[in-house]
Design brief:
With about 375 residues, this protein is α+β, with helices and mostly antiparallel strands. The protein is about 35% helix and about 15% strand. It is globular and about 55 Å long.
């Protein structure tokens, strides 16, 4: 642990930022206990980040640990944005469900209905629903190309050329029969969104999700934004950065940044306040790939907490030095958000979060 990190923690940077609030007497979950568990565990790890826990009927509690910019000794605050990696897929899926409600798209329509120039022998079999659940069978031509030439990671391309190069291969399996967490799916998703809405992808996400929900700290992550966005690190002592950004044609998969407050606002709107129609919410929370707990654009997990089974929307992101989680109990809460800018493993993030939720629910 480096000296700057000790200074932030020693100065009360973790729990001094916790918002004081009462807990509803009817609540079965104690966010203060859960946040204390989360912050204590994070303090023992190679962790810099922002934390939020909210229980049903209670104001969110927040904490911040460590530095957003180690080299400049800039501390993290609960308002610091972080890259959210694959939680972007959840934002993308919400925008698409709004387009479905507008009757601009259909989850069960073949992708050739909107992508008129796509090869019909495969495209007629693949639907938008296959892409959003990573079950299309279209092979990941992008990763195969990058393995041969790493410089391609920084090469941006027009959408049509990106699809031709990376997302037009012969099917590796029958659509819907297997799970393949492939970037290729999301290259096509961006193209479909833009074809359906006749607008740039970023504007569709902003107009259907970000602006209606007041998510002012959320948007496309660009290299020029690392200040004020937390910088991502491979190691924190000594500091070594690890920034990995998707090219624009793949931004629907993992190209956004956000804050703990915005992600809490998002979870409450989607799962508690009818941001989506009942039909759309059911689609969003129906598992399509049981062995992966994968629905559309994210996972639905059943956890055993304090002796009871509880279903959670479980959105994770892992890219370079960014490791993050947004979890929301589908029985009315709680919400837990963890945003980290070090190379803490995604498995460890999940373990810390599950332990904190278990403590929040208390003994069986």
């Amino acid at each position: 642990m480096n000296g700057n990190r000790r200074q932030v923690l020693g100065g009360g940077g973790a729990l001094a930022l916790v918002t004081a609030s009462g807990v509803s007497a009817a609540a079965k979950f104690d966010p203060a206990v859960a946040l204390a568990s989360l912050a204590a565990a994070a303090g023992r790890e190679p962790f810099n980040g922002a934390l939020l826990v909210a229980g049903p009927g209670a104001r969110p509690r927040r904490a911040a640990i460590g530095l957003a910019n180690i080299e400049a000794s800039r501390p993290i605050s609960p308002a610091t944005p972080f890259g959210i990696a694959s939680i972007t897929k959840f934002l993308t899926t919400l925008a698409i469900l709004k387009l479905v409600e507008e009757r601009r798209m259909a989850l069960d329509a073949p992708i050739t209905a909107l992508l008129k120039d796509y090869r019909r022998d495969t495209g007629d079999k693949v639907t938008l629903g296959h892409l959003l659940s990573n079950t299309s069978g279209i092979p990941n031509g992008y990763i195969a190309a990058v393995k041969l030439d790493a410089s391609l990671m920084s090469l941006d391309l027009p959408m049509a050329e990106a699809i031709r190069r990376y997302a037009s291969g012969d099917l590796a399996f029958e659509p819907g029969s297997k799970f393949d967490y492939s970037l290729t799916n999301w290259i096509l998703v961006r193209a479909l969104v833009e074809a359906a809405a006749a607008a740039p992808f970023e504007e569709v996400v902003a107009s259907r999700v970000l602006r209606p929900l007041g998510m002012k700290g959320t948007g496309r992550l660009l290299p020029s934004m690392i200040d004020p966005v937390a910088a991502p690190y491979r190691t924190i002592d000594p500091p070594a950065r690890n920034l990995q950004l998707n090219p624009a044609f793949a931004v629907a998969s993992g190209g956004y940044c956000s804050t703990v407050g915005d992600l809490h606002r998002l979870a409450i709107a989607v799962f508690e306040r009818r941001f989506l129609s009942p039909a759309s919410l059911k689609l969003l929370t129906t598992v399509r790939v049981a062995e992966q707990n994968y629905a559309l654009g994210g996972r639905i997990k059943t956890l055993v907490l304090a002796g009871a089974e509880r279903r959670f929307a479980w959105e994770t992101g892992n890219s370079g030095g960014y490791k993050c989680l947004m979890a929301h109990g589908l029985d009315g809460g709680p919400t837990l958000v963890l945003l980290n800018n070090t190379n803490l493993s995604q498995k460890r993030v999940d373990e810390i979060a599950i332990a904190a939720l278990n403590r929040g629910y208390g003994p069986a």
